[in-house]
Amino acid sequence: MNTGNPREKEEPKTSVSFIEQIIQEDLREGKNNGRVHTRFPPEPNGYLHIGHAKAICLDFGMAQKYGGKCNLRFDDTNPTKEDVEYVDSIKEDIHWLGFDWENREFYASDYFGKLFDFATDLIKRKLAYVDDQTAEMISRQKGNPSQPGEESPFRNRSVEENLDLFYRMNEGEFDEGSRVLRARIDMTSPNMHMRDPIIYRIIKIPHHRTGTKWNVYPMYDFAHGQCDYFEGITHSLCTLEFEVHRPLYDWFIDQLKSSDDYKPRQIEFNRLNLTYTMMSKRKLLELVQEGNVNGWDDPRMPTLCGLRRRGYTPESIRKFVDLIGYTKVEAINDVSLLEHAVREDLNLRAPRVFGVLNPLKVVITNYPEDKVENVEVVNNPEDESTGTRQVPFSREVYIEQDDFMEVAPPKFFRLAPGMEVRLKGAYIIKCESFRKNEDTGAVEEVHCTYDPATRSGGHLSEKKVKGTLHWVSVQHAVDAEVRLYDRLFSHEDPAGQKEEDYRKFLNPGSLKVLTGCKVEPSLASAKHLDKFQFQRLGYFCIDYDSAPGHLVFNRTVQLKDTWAKVSVERK
RNA sequence: UGCUCUGUGGUGUAAUUGGCAACACGUCUGACUCUGGAUCAGAAAAGUUCAGGUUCGAGCCCUGACAGAGCAACCA
Questions:
Q1: Of the residues A320, A347, A431, A454, which has the fewest C-beta atoms closer than 10 A?
Q2: Known catalytic residue: A455?
């Protein structure tokens, strides 16, 4: 049973979500001629965030798993909010996540003509009418969830008049808000969405794709299901809040469909909620517009481009999504699970480097003053194929301040007077004495001796010591500026913040900058230092765009309680 | 007080469709020591919101409560 490789854990039994059960059942029953066809339908009014990743993984994932296809369809029915900037970023982010829609890039606006024809068809069948009332009036007549609505005085207009008015609405003859087209269903329905829903409204702002061709635009409810139908979508996956829309979704398609053997089906699943994370697109937009963050890709943002810049890998995000599953329960997932997913992924592939955040000089008194030798260290203990690198070693090195204590408490296996420790890849050193700053009392320098026989790989290299430290040769060290980012929010859980006061939970822009950070020169150039290294060791968010010469830290940084706990100066 | 949906360890998900409530994250121990917060070993933690019912047997089926969420945009 034991394969001898502890890494080869048994594949965890992947549970089958209720959605998959539905798909499997449909397949078994031969519905849709055995086709599975899904779609991912973002509105291009903002950047994709981690919540969208959950939907993307589902939509594309189900298609992949069941030999089907998944379309990308931009839900661009409201030109007042939408922009090509968002279209481009959405496509980039989906690709980055690892999914592809091939040549099936569609837009709800592709179907404006068909939708318009369908609307006129409904008018002719007395299933739609133009309402001249104000928004307030229509809203009042709608009643409320516990009280039935009343019918509009325009509800029984003639087909001819409705047709004429609807055409003229589209020709731009009427002002925005002056008239709408409504489906004629049931003003007394217990489902608010069935009370003669508005299906077309006048908008005179140019559309990012169709320009000024249209003056009327379909509402979501009038577009989405029909688009699904036009594209041959079999399973239309969306989030829970659309559950009450389903009867309307079905109603339109029933009016539209021409065959009985095919009909798209809407299935709802729970949206992603993360602790300490706000997922509202509108509020994220506000943060960007108000300059509280440095854009959609600010490393603190929960957007995919923010996470990417922060060093998250697509694999880790997919893993995370896989972990949390799809149900109908409104769950709040712990960010620590996301963090676990990155760690697990990065641990296997991130190259390791040495670095010191808060340097403490160590002088190896019996090491020749002018000698320099290269020691060899592995780039990644989890992956031999990444090879080794040479690191210069000399008489004076920096170690992390936290790696030294004047008085070692029990179980402190790092450096303290009289204690021995290995400098990783190099020698075992012993602490003989230390010097304090007379004014501050802070330890300024530690004096050690080394045992030349203990060099890594040598005869006595098998000698055991309890601790191993990262280090950086003083004369080869390079200063680096490191930018640490905290989470976007702190303290309370902004995921639960309904009010506008979520801003007060914002963390500062960046927990700027470590002074005196040292890095070995060979690693200080940007091409050696990619996001993985940063991510890996510190699990800090580091702005790796911000230049060459960054650094890394060793284990002594307290990661466990981290984020803000690291002693850095806030800007 | 209408309609729809949902209640399983701290958190998120399972439970072969009625058969000993399982897994992951987190937490806590211990071990290891060229360090990765990796790996290994172990522990605590729910009797499935509550009350009835059907059944040899219920997390699963039925009834009724209770709790939470969504729905009254010319947003999606």
A1: A347
A2: no
The predicted-structure confidence for A485-529, as pLDDT tens digits, reads as follows: 667 887 666 776 656 678 888 876 654 444 445 554 434 322 223
For residue A228, count other CB atoms closer than 10 A to its CB: 25
Strand B: which positions are within 7 A of a protein CB? 1-8, 10-15, 17, 23-27, 33-40, 68-76
Q: Which two tokens stand for residue A496?
A: 């639960």
Nucleotide nearest to A132 (CA to C1'): B74
Query: Could you identify the residue written with the tokens 């002719």?
Result: A124
Which residues in A75-112 are b (16+ Cβ under 10 Å) and which e?
bbbbbebbeeebbebbbebbebbebebeeeebbbbbbb
Enumerate residues 6+ apart whose C-beta is below 8 A from A189.
Answer: A148, A195
Q: Residue A481, Cα to own-chain centre: how many angstroms?
A: 26
* Cα–Cα distance, A346 to A147 (Å, whole number): 56
For residue A151, give the DSSP letter. Answer: -
DSSP A81-97: T--HHHHHHHHHHHHHH
What's the predicted TM-score (pTM) here?
0.88
Cα distance between residue A472 and residue A391, in whole Å: 9
Residue nearest to nucleotide B38 (CA to C1'): A347
Comparing C-alpha atoms, which of A125, A122, A204 is closest to residue A170? A204
Q: How far is CA A538 from CA A195, A300, A339, in A?
A: 55, 15, 12
Nearest 10 degrees: Cα torsion A555, A560, A564, A566: -30
Alpha carbon distance A389, A374 (integer Å): 9
Rounded-to-10 torsion of CA A133, A134, A135, A137:
-70
| A369 assigned to active site | no
Contacts of A259 (CB under 8 A, 6+ apart): none
Q: DSSP letter string over A479-504?
A: E---EEE--SB-SS-GGG--SGGGGG
DSSP conformation letters of A249-260: HHHHHHHH---S
- Which residue's alpha carbon is at the shortest distance from the C1' of B12? A324
Helix H or strand E segment including A220: helix A220-231
Q: Based on the residue annotation, tell me whether A43 is a catalytic residue of this protein.
A: yes
DSSP run (H or E) holding A160? helix A159-171
Specify the pairing of strand A518-519 against strand A355-356: antiparallel
Quote the tokens at residue A334: 């712990």
pLDDT digits (tens, 9 = 90+) for A446-483: 999 999 989 887 766 677 888 888 888 888 776 655 55
| Residue among A154, A112, A118, A117 nearest A133 (CA) | A154
Residue A533: burial class (beta carbons within 10 Å; 0-12, 13-18, 19+): buried
Give ipTM to 2 decimals: 0.94
Query: Is residue A418 within 8 Å of A424, Cβ to Cβ?
Result: no
Pair A303, A39: CB distance under 8 Å: no
Q: How far apart are CA A155 and CA A126, in angstroms?
A: 10
